[in-house]
Specification:
- This protein has 590 residues and is an alpha/beta fold.
- The chain has three domains: 175 residues, Thiamin diphosphate (ThDP)-binding fold, Pyr/PP domains (Rossmann fold, 3-Layer(aba) Sandwich), CATH 3.40.50.970; 152 residues, Rossmann fold (3-Layer(aba) Sandwich), CATH 3.40.50.1220; 178 residues, Rossmann fold (3-Layer(aba) Sandwich).
- It is 40% helix and 16% strand.
- The protein contains 23 helices and 19 strands.
- A six-stranded parallel sheet has the order 3-2-4-5-7-6, with helices on both faces.
- Helix 23 links the parallel strand 18 and strand 19.
């Protein structure tokens, strides 16, 4: 262009030059977008949690992926919900928490999930690890990653947004593989806030192959177990929650019914086979431990709940068969004559095949004797319920006598149960006929899982849930009844109020005006908690009122809370379990 031309264009304001196109920038995402997408890609349908710094926006983005985000009042209950979700579905339940104390609250549930073999993933927002390592006093400074590592199967820390897909996929695989359990992901603020090109992120996603790979048992081990079982004159099968988790119900049914082997279910295995079935030895625990010559443990760990498989309660000459996914469980407390290590379904298939060519040696008198003992003990138990039927005020047995026929008429209701006497007496009273319909405090016998587990069960299965809670147990998680109401879940909470831990009549040992350590409030109105959040609630004082209220609550498929007034002296101190909590030399009750 000449000087003349340029001057003319400047004077007229016109230019023959073609305008430059606006620069094109690649689409970009934050680490929060990547996290939401990763959860969606691996098949997560629900996240349980409590939002705050630094995960609030991530929760919105997770919802935007079509994933439910079930919010709570306390992270521990969110974690218990995730753990229960994992147990009932065999897929990891996911809990998401804020940093520091929010993370620690969630770790209670993560540790419990790991001990109980529930697949679960905890994702916690975290401060910049570089600042934590330098002890700079950053916001909510805590080395969450190293704190969590000892409480779970595996732990991952995401420092960059590009770490997130791999961490989520690997966490899923770790949670469900081998013995299921908890996995922790430290989701740092730098990773969540980082901006990355969408094209680069897309390359990080892939379709995971064989997230769970079943491991077949050794053939020689199966043959050994089959030989031993076939030789037994007085065999028994003990079913654990691992057997229920495995969802191999038909295989277990075939084994028991084909070879007429009596069975005893541990608490959360109730219903795997009917509690009142002809081969059920539910009332014969002591006889099985003391007289059985061969005991097969299917998904049951030989721990404190079974007196470690030794001692004066057990037949010292009994031989054990153990089916378990984890070789570390073998010989833990007593030598196992025939261990079968592998996937539960494959192990049972192999064992059933091996037994076809063997002749069983079960003594018919053994089965008949257990059936006779069951009949006698069940009759005495019925007499106990009948004797308590008209007690005023109600006792635990009065209330459970009213609940028992209502739940029998609604077998598909999932029962969540915790407490001291409330746990023990409900387990003994309420029969289960369907698998995975009882969820309780399991291996550690901890309190404080009630509302979380009730929510997790309702969300994971879309079934109605009844949570039978002691008043002490309800106190751990009662505020999250509001979450049941907020999500309009078909959960009925039944609170047994006897005014204390064990009972409400404890007296302090010292001269003090303070209540005893075991005393709560016999006059508490737990039904008003339900009213506060808009649920149908009532206080009942008679078994007829309780029966009617529970029947109506289940039928409504709405949030309901029933406050059951018991006598203050209902319940006994049950904390003295052998060597675990030795009793004082003086009486602490009236």
């Amino acid at each position: 262009m000449s000087i003349t031309q340029n001057t003319t264009q400047a004077a007229t304001g016109q230019c023959s030059c073609t305008p430059k196109a606006a620069p094109e920038y690649p689409a970009q995402l934050t680490g929060m977008d990547v996290l939401a997408r990763a959860l969606k890609e691996v098949g997560i349908s629900t996240v349980y949690g409590l939002v705050g710094i630094p995960i609030t926006e991530a929760a919105y983005l997770i919802q935007a992926q079509g994933i439910r985000f079930i919010t709570f009042r306390h992270e521990q209950q969110a974690g218990m919900a995730a753990a229960t979700h994992g147990y009932l579905t065999k897929t990891p339940g996911v809990v998401m928490t804020v940093s520091s104390l929010g993370c620690l609250n969630g770790l209670t549930a993560l540790a419990n999930a790991t001990v109980n073999c529930y697949p679960m993933i905890q994702i916690s927002g975290a401060s910049d690890p570089a600042m934590v390592d330098m002890n700079m006093g950053t916001y909510e400074q805590l080395d969450q990653f190293n704190t969590a590592k000892s409480l779970c199967k595996a732990a991952f820390r995401c420092t960059h947004a590009t770490d997130i897909p791999s961490a989520v996929f690997r966490a899923y695989r770790a949670a469900v593989s081998g013995r299921p359990g908890g996995v922790y992901i430290d989701m740092t603020t730098p990773a969540l806030a980082e901006i990355v090109d969408a094209d680069a992120v897309e390359k990080l996603f892939y379709k995971p192959v064989d997230l769970y790979t079943p491991t077949a048992p050794n053939k020689a081990a199966v043959e050994r177990a089959a030989d031993l079982l076939a030789s037994a004159r007085q065999p028994a099968i003990i079913l654990g929650k691992g057997a229920a988790y495995a969802q191999v119900d038909d295989k277990i049914k075939k084994l028991i019914e084909t070879y007429k082997i009596p069975y005893f279910p541990m608490s959360m295995a109730k219903g795997l086979m009917p509690d009142d079935g002809p081969l059920s030895a539910l009332s014969c625990r002591s006889t099985i431990m003391g007289k059985a010559d061969v005991v097969m443990f299917i998904g049951a760990r030989i721990n404190w709940l079974l007196s470690f498989g030794k001692g004066k309660k057990w037949n010292p000459d009994a031989k054990f068969i153990q089916l378990d996914i984890d070789p570390e469980e073998i010989d833990r407390n007593r030598p196992i004559a025939a261990p079968v290590v592998g996937d539960m379904g494959l192990s049972l298939d192999a064992l059933l095949d091996a037994l076809e060519s063997r002749k069983m040696s079960v003594d018919p008198a053994w089965v008949a004797s257990l059936q006779a003992e069951t009949k006698e003990k069940d009759a005495k138990f019925s007499e106990r319920l009948a004797a308590a039927k008209n007690a005023t005020p109600m006792t635990h047995w009065t209330a459970l006598g009213a609940i028992k026929p209502v739940l029998a008429a609604n077998p598909d209701v999932i029962l969540v149960n915790e407490g001291a006497n409330t746990l023990d007496d409900t387990r003994d009273t309420i029969s289960m006929s369907l698998p995975r319909h009882r969820v309780d405090c399991a291996t550690w016998a901890i309190m404080g899982m009630g509302m979380g587990s009730a929510i997790g069960a309702a969300v994971a299965t879309s079934k109605s849930v009844v949570a039978i809670e002691g008043d002490s147990a309800f106190g751990f998680s009662g505020m999250d009844f509001s979450s049941i109401c907020r999500f309009d879940l078909p959960v009925t909470v039944v609170v047994f109020n006897n005014g204390g831990i064990y009972n409400g009549i404890g007296k302090p040992l010292d001269k003090t005006d303070d209540p005893a350590p075991t005393t709560l409030d016999i006059n508490a109105r737990y039904d008003l908690i339900g009213q506060a959040f808009g649920a149908k609630s009532c206080r009942v004082t008679t078994p007829d009122q309780l029966s009617q209220a529970l029947t109506e609550a289940i039928a409504s498929k709405k949030p309901c809370l029933i406050d059951v007034q018991l006598a203050a002296d209902s319940g006994k101190e049950s904390g003295h379990i052998g060597y675990l909590n030795p009793a004082p030399l003086i009486d602490i009750t009236v």
